[in-house]
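Q: Hi! First time doing this. I have a protein sequence and I read that you can turn it into a structure. Is that right? Here it is:
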Amino acid sequence: MHEWAKPGVRESEVCAKVNEYLYRSGFDFVYDIIVASGGNTSPYRRWHTDKIIRQGDLVIVDINAIGPGGYFIDFVRCWKVAAKPTPKEKDLYKRCYDSLYAGIEALRPGATTADVAARFPEYDDDKYGSVSLQQFAHSIGLSLYEGMWISRAYSFKHPAEIKQNMYFAIETFSGFPGLEQTVRLEENVCVTDQGPVRFTLCEHPDYWFSEP
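A: Yes, that's right. Below is the predicted 3D structure, encoded as structure tokens:
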């Protein structure tokens, strides 16, 4: 996908490319594709526009689709366009990545949704009891949202047990008011007796983790 997000290309064109790729790959139905670049990542806009992608933009792509066999995928990746990420952008990515994988590590049989929510960073949901969909997880399978939600807004007061073979989409966000760009990531994970197993095949770009 990062190959399609180039300077001069519109968000809508990237969205079209992702749709074409998924259908050519045998997916049954593309539910939703979010492409947000540059200023459209802050605040994070949950759709695509005709905005032209520029050099230096961060591009967030969120894919929800029904794959072969009727099972959903739901994952997010973030790329830097035609430039090296700045130290501040790397820090944002690391915050997002670390909180994501801290939550994943807690997805184990016998744990509770409160254990997972405790790994997410504090956010306005803590203060207002809202569900902003910034730091959360949800069960996924034959439908996009299968009934179990994990959020700091209510999982502490209403914990539910995590059981073997449960399958989750878990996603986190890193950004602050006033920033021009932000980062969002998401993985699909199966709970096993050997620990959480990531099913998302799209890797994270090495440049986010390389030394300056």
